[in-house]
Amino acid sequence: MASSIKEFEKQVFLAERILLISIAILTVLGNTLVLILTWREKCLHEPSKYFVAFLAAADLLVGIFVAPLSYYAVLLYDQPASVLLSVHLCRFMTWIDTFALTTSIYTLTVISFDRYLKISKPFRYKTLMTTSTTKKLLFIIVFVSAVIATYSATPCSGSHGLLATGSGVCSSSDEGEVFETFLSISAFFLPDTIILVMYGLIFIVAHRRNKKLVNGGLSQTMINQKKRTTLRRDLKVIRMLLIVAGVFILCWGPWIAWTRLWYYYYDFINWESDSESYWRRVDILSLVVTTLPLFNSLCNPIIYACLDQKYTEAFKRLVKKITFRKKSFGRQPQPIQLVPLKNRLHN
Q: What pTM, to 2 d.p., does this model score?
């Protein structure tokens, strides 16, 4: 049985490598496209879209660094300690793991506040959420994330990195459990709770506004219709961002639960089991749990393209422009017909 399990594990590792390569390529392409569209399109030059672009930048880090380094760690899984990662590379992997997670979740948290402000104070929103305010909030996110990530990469934290890419010579100390618990609370449970509360308040405020509009309590009929259209458009954007936050929770939740069980209830896996089917299920579950967080960075550009009207229209314009250029380059130049001088004078 041991040989068949080993053979199955090799197949799982092969599938993991293929998934990691695919996720890395598609994540880089999708999030680069989001950043290009945000830079090119004037209609996307607004505070809420800057937060989305920043989230895309965090996801881009996953595609450029985290997924390839995870692939490298998988390749070295069965290698002896003497040929494993250098301590500096291992610490960088830990740093980028943590930084990508914290920037993503804190950006989603700030986005929920931004949307609540947009719905609850529509007339004051533009004066409260200016470009300058947006830049300050993004700086705070980067600073806090960098501090947490830097501490996670120090030997005293005992951290392997949230995606466990820091393997081999980056040995974990007894303090690792404490740090990982702190990180899961500060960078997952607490922000997710805030996000869910904020979106709950958003829908309560939106329901009240819509009720007033239906009852004619805000203004005249024509103005009501315009405000109702604006409210409907805002709710579509909020629905998209809520889906982004929901996908984040669904992708990261299993990994957080898995690591908590691993640290505090190690026997949640029956290590004494002789069942081949049991270990196959464990291997598949481990593969799904470890790749879902990376898959999250691939999902966001797809969500924007499908649910955000501004991004959809900007994407269509970009595709048309590229297609038009290709057709222009592919056209053969028309030969110049020379007309005799006497004919031209006659005409």
A: 0.81
Residues 6 or more apart whose CB falls under 8 angstroms from that of 114 comprise 47, 48, 51, 129
- Return d(Cα 55, Cα 34) in angstroms, integer: 10
Q: Using the 8-state DSSP alphabet, how is residue 218 labeled?
A: S
CB of 107 closer than 8 Å to CB of 244: no
Per-residue pLDDT of the chain in tens (347 residues, 90 and over written 9): 567 777 888 888 888 889 989 999 999 999 999 999 999 888 888 888 899 899 999 999 999 998 888 887 777 665 554 455 667 777 888 888 889 889 988 998 998 898 888 888 888 888 888 889 999 999 999 999 999 988 888 776 666 555 555 444 455 554 567 777 888 888 889 998 998 888 888 888 877 777 776 665 555 554 556 666 766 777 777 788 788 888 888 988 898 888 888 777 878 888 888 788 888 888 899 889 988 988 988 898 888 777 778 888 888 888 888 887 766 665 655 555 555 545 544 54
Please answer whether residues 135 and 44 qualify as being in contact, where contact means their C-beta atoms are separated by less than 8 angstroms: no
Please state, in angstroms and rounded to a whole number, the distance separating the CA atoms of residues 278 and 3.
Answer: 15
DSSP string spanning 46-66?
A: SHHHHHHHHHHHHHHHIIIII
Distance of CA 29 to the CA centre of its chain: 13
Helix (H/G/I), strand (E/B), else coil: 154: coil
Alpha carbon distance 174, 69 (integer Å)? 25
